[in-house]
Amino acid sequence: MIVLLLGAPGAGKGTQAVLLARSLGLMHIATGDMFRSEAKAGTELGKLANSYMLRGDLVPDDITIRMLQARLKSPEASKGAVLDGFPRTVAQASALDSGLAKSGARVDRAIYLVVVEDELVRRMAGRGRADDTPEAIRHRLEVYRKQTEPVLAHYRNAGRLTEVSGEGAVDEIQKRLVAAAA
Questions:
Q1: Residue 67 vs residues 48, 49, 53, 109, 154: alpha-carbon distances, Å
Q2: Which tens digit of pLDDT belongs to each residue from 44-68?
Q3: d(CA 42, CA 35)
Q4: Whole-model pTM?
Q5: pLDDT for 5
Q6: HSE-up of 31 (CA within 13 Å, CB side)?
Q7: Is the Cβ–Cβ distance between 1 and 80 less than 8 Å?
Q8: For residue 15, what are the domain limits?
Q9: Runs of H (alpha helix) within 25-148
Q10: 3-class DSSP assignment, residue 82
């Protein structure tokens, strides 16, 4: 089972994806954590990814897809995965769909965490990450609207998109997500 957790930066994907993966018995794959881990390790792909993240830009597809494909082939992902932060573009969604189809799999559910923009800004400003400056936050939301929102239409048109409110208590949101993934 492959479940995508989609939403704007600050929507709570990281927190909720870990809980959802645990609830469903699936591997949690967070591209943001994957990028930061590679950057911290000083790998070439990590350095490249970090240079984009510090500007608030999306990491290019080829870098993201190479990292993600290795994770999906790992034994920990044998029952499936909850993808957190990927795909972020329609090109990535298409590449993911193609890659999964080659192994006889597909995205089973794409769940969109809906959060109003003022709440997104408040949440991100409070995280304390180096890449969460006011300028980077504004830029990240603008990039999200232009490049990532079309992914919602991609999965809506495929009949696999479910919208879930990302506002409220963590446990309330989690219950809604588990129900949406069923």
A1: 12, 11, 16, 22, 22
A2: 888 999 999 899 888 888 888 878 8
A3: 11
A4: 0.82
A5: 96
A6: 26
A7: yes
A8: 2-181
A9: 31-41, 44-55, 61-72, 90-102, 117-125, 134-143
A10: strand
Q: Are 113 and 11 in contact (CB under 8 A)?
A: yes
Residue segments in the chain with a per-residue pLDDT below the cut of 70:
none
Cβ atoms of residues 72 and 82 within 8 Å: no
Q: In 73-103, where does DSSP find H-type helix?
A: 90-102
Q: Are strands 27-30 and 2-6 parallel, antiparallel or unpaired?
A: unpaired
Asked if residues 17 and 82 have their Cβ atoms less than 8 Å apart, the reply is: yes
Q: Into how many domains does the chain fold?
A: 1
Give the span between the Cα atoms of 108 and 97, in whole angstroms. Answer: 11
CB 104 within 8 A of CB 98: no
The two beta strands, 27-30 and 161-165, are unpaired
Residue 89's contacts (CB-CB under 8 Å, 6 or more residues apart) are 58, 61, 147, 148, 150, 151
CATH code for the domain of 157 = 3.40.50.300
The tokens describing 42, both together, are 């000083």
